[in-house]
Amino acid sequence: MSDDSKPSGSLKDGFFAKPSVFDKKKDENKEQPTVKQFDDKVDEIVDQQRKNKEKAALSVLKFKKDFDSKTLAENKSVIVKEMERSNLKELLELISSLNQDENEPEGTGSLVGMTLVLTLMNSLRDRLNSIEHKLSEIDKVTQNQVTY
Predict the structure, then answer these.
(1) CB 11 within 8 A of CB 17
(2) How much is the pTM?
(3) Mean pLDDT of successive 10-residue stretches along the chain, which has 148 residues
């Protein structure tokens, strides 16, 4: 057997590599976290997740308020338009940060964004159905008036 076919002594070198004798010593030299350090880290993660939820709720509420506005685009002031852009930017940054947060499940930000989009689509559907119903009622009334 040539030297090329022998397994390497490092884990990085391939599937059949043997662990290095130094790997165990590296692990032994690592300082294990204390219970207090562990509890502090858990508290920090829980606090960050609470803050994320608060930011998400606030951002979603702001965006939904902008979305539900009945003000025509041409009637909106520069300040209102800037606030809407700012709220959208804040929401997108939140979604991105949730996706990148290693302490959140993968795709959490995307899930928040998709949930918001689907909720808003249902809201739009309901508004359109209401408008369509009112329009059909108006058509019935005008049809009856024209025939008499």
Answers:
(1) yes
(2) 0.65
(3) 50 56 58 85 92 92 92 95 95 93 90 94 96 95 78
Where helices occur in the chain by DSSP H, the ranges are: 21-29, 35-68, 78-100, 108-147
Instruction: Copy the structure tokens of residue 58.
Output: 């606030």
Contacts of 110 (CB under 8 A, 6+ apart): 95, 99
Tokens of 80: 């209102």
Q: Which DSSP helix (H) or strand (E) runs through 4? A: none
Distance CA 47, CA 136 (A): 52
Q: What angle, 0 to 180 degrees and rounded to 10, lies between the N-to-C axes of helices 108-147 and 35-68?
A: 20
14 conformational bin, left if phi > 0, alpha if psi -120 to 50, beta if neither: left
Tokens of 6: 């022998």
The Cα–Cα gap between 60 and 96 comes to 14
> What is the number of other CB atoms lying within 10 angstroms of the CB of residue 126?
10
Contact yes or no for 80/71 (Cβ under 8 A): yes
